[in-house]
Write a structure and sequence with these properties.
247 residues; 2 strands
């Protein structure tokens, strides 16, 4: 019985590994029509008895403003172009900060947030963290950085039920994402730590200060010059062994 159970579990794990890898690989080219977070928000609104209409319109990379791209990187993950999905130094600092009794602090990269938003549920349990690490590794393995940021900007929540840059631009500023100004882009990036409580269109003093800080950080990162690092040609599999032919 134990042998049969072990065989079944091994087969189930193998199917999960292969299936999740193929799914992530396909999403390199296929724009995800929805996300796990969107489904969670919809279901939660039904449970609360306050149904909401989710807002989201996909915009390809070329239609997303550079000011918003660099503002989000400056706000959320300044080492985005260099790491492989995990900012080890930031994780160590967060663990030390939390161990010392400070306010709970995270250290999620943009890649980790894409994995969480697309595939997983909210929470801080260890099983979810393990799955987040698995999907983050697959995303970094199969997607170029440009694609990771494109999916992030089209999937992140910018207000209750408002997902993606296009819906956020229309919700907060009544313009399409393409026409966002630099200051509007910084304000949108500034509310990302708490988008359901903070407003980009009616920013309080904290959001204003944070937006100004993001604007300065965007300049220091190099602005559009930083973004050029994301569009450099990359192999399909970034960690491909040197002794094997490139795919």
């Amino acid at each position: 019985m134990l042998r049969n159970l072990f065989r079944r579990l091994t087969k189930l794990l193998l199917w999960f590994v292969v299936g999740s890898a193929l799914l992530v690989l396909a999403l390199r080219w296929i724009d995800p029509p929805s996300t796990a977070l969107m489904a969670e928000r919809k279901i939660q609104s039904w449970v609360d008895g306050k149904p909401i209409d989710l807002q989201r319109s996909w915009r390809p990379w070329r239609d997303l403003p550079d000011d918003l791209k660099i503002a989000v990187i400056a706000a959320e993950d300044q080492k985005f172009a260099d790491h492989w999905g995990f900012d080890i130094a930031a994780i160590r600092l967060a663990l030390q900060h939390n161990a010392d009794g400070g306010n709970l602090r995270g250290a999620s990269t943009i890649s980790q947030q894409v994995a969480k938003n697309l595939f997983l549920w909210s929470g801080r349990s260890w099983p979810r963290k393990v799955l987040e690490a698995w999907f983050t590794g697959l995303i970094e393995l199969f997607w170029p950085k440009q694609r990771i940021l494109e999916v992030y900007l089209n999937s992140v929540e910018w207000s209750d039920g408002v997902f993606g840059a296009e819906a956020a631009a229309r919700h907060h500023f009544n313009v399409g994402a393409t026409y966002l100004s630099r200051q509007q882009s910084c304000l949108l990036a500034a509310v990302l730590p708490n988008p359901r409580a903070w407003s980009a269109s009616h920013p309080g003093p904290h959001v204003q200060r944070r937006a100004n800080w993001i604007r300065r950080q965007s300049y220091q990162l190099g602005g559009n010059h930083y973004l050029k690092q994301l569009s450099a040609p990359q192999p399909l599999v970034q960690w491909w062994p040197e002794w094997l032919p490139k795919p």
